[in-house]
Give the backbone structure.
Amino acid sequence: MAAVEALRRRSVPLLLLAAASVICIAVSVSTGSVAISVGELWAVISGGGEPLHRTLILELRLPRSLAAFATGGLLAVAGALMQVLLRNPLADPYVLGLSGGAAVAALLCMLAGMPPAIVSIAAFAGALGSAVLVFGLAHGRGSWTTTRLLLTGVVVSSGWGAVITFMLAVGPTEQLPGMLYWLMGDLAYARSPWPALIILALTSLILLPLGRSLNVLARGPMQAAALGVAVRPLEWSIYGSASLLTASAVTTAGSIGFVGLVVPHMLRLVLGNDQRLILPAAALTGGALLVLADTLARTIIAPEQLPAGVITALLGVPTFLYLLYRSR
Amino acid sequence: MVALYRFLLLILLTLPAQAERCVVDDINHTVCLPKPAERIIALSPGATELLFAAGAGSKVIAAVTFSDFPEAAKALPRIGSYNRFDMEAIVAAQPDLIIAWKEGNPREQVAQLRDLGLPVYHGDQRDFQDIASTIKRLGVLAGTEQEANAEANRFLEGIEHFRQKYEDAAPVRAFYQVWVNPLMTANKNHFIGHALTLCGGENIFGELPRLTPRIGVEAVLAADPEVIIAGGMAEDDPGWLDAWRPFSNLTAVQRDNLFFVPPSTLQRPSPRLLDGIELLCRNLETARGRR
């Protein structure tokens, strides 16, 4: 009976968030430079409609919205995992230098004039490369503590930051806008949304049964070990999956900030700290937030476009501060 | 006897006037040189081209990166890039004239060069007339008035030729793609915009406030241009234009009006604009023929 009650307690917020996500995607698909009414939207969905509307919705807006949803979800889940792993409220998906590694590889490819597909692959390789580097350095010969991991990550990030600044300083002028937009995070680079969506769905499924162990780990490795959790393998799989999630997100849309740091915190303030609820809720909320931010980014000053990363922060900062203030 | 004195006096009066050469630059500063400049530093690729156009190419002693036209400019020593230059190298080169770029050069650095007593000419060319008048003024400062005036007039005549030829041509709605990622275009105040107007083109993003605005694909589809012209690196990467082909609703795609114009001939203020304009006009003419 209690189990059913707990399940219901978790499923109500999740259903609400899922509904909100669908609404966000619908709003995103029906807004843009060309006005499309609900009726016309329905015509396109049911397989008819004007050719221009079909192109706009099916080839431009929908893939982009789904890519935004997947990216936001990936980042929020990765952020939640990192905060559990490092037991540090300031941890976000990029704290271990993944965005820096991805950015250095991606910008190098842009400087060399590579096509966008190669830039994406390079970003993925750069992110995972940085994760392996940080993991190896933090592992070292001595003990593997989260403090050591965090410190290594922060220092490696600063190193990447310096390399990025150097590349921006010597890069040719006409390349600069492209490089800056990539660094700010921008969905215009998103190609097919499917890889990111599939990775998000798969990781969510894999993490679901781990929720209880994650809850225990969040209290500290000692308690977790005492309660029979195999701490080391769990920590390594969190590290690995968070890196994979972040790498996929960075590959899809560049380094979008803020979502990964703040969405898990927001949810904890509202829903409590149960990872079985927080992780799927983070996937939905992060996704919806980024869909909303991207829709605003491409419509506020249309036809001119803003990078979505700017809007995520502008939307998220006041919301988060309000929740934090209210929770005192 | 009186006539002779008068003649000598006249010579004495005119001598300094002849030696002292003054022009007013684009920020209304008067730049005066005691004698024709012999050691000129150009702080932008455009300034380098204009100096060569004014017949003063042999007097340029240093330039910034990407100064790649004409061929001789590539061999010039570099003193940095247009937005970060090596002050020590500039001062050590002992120039007697520096050509700065009002919009592109860091103001503090240029002001510092002026404070050091170096003669600085500030250039800011916004239309075809500015280019011609800059060439003439550079000619005065470098003592190459004859070549400069000839080149400036050749340029203006070229522009006039296109103006007359396409004045009454049917307007063509055109989209000029400056860059692909992010998608960028140029407004009517850019030289690309001026060139489009000259050829009887109608820039679909001409009225946007920024010089090179960043836009969305959707806005292009909504405006449905008759012609799409790509600059940037489209020459090496045909994907720039091919990326539009899947949008079969676009008039430009249906009529195969997807063209490439090398950006170097349309983006810098120099007489080379004539080459870019000729190609651009020919492309728009092709588009008119496909109606």
Summary: The first strand of chain B starts at residue 21 and ends at 24.
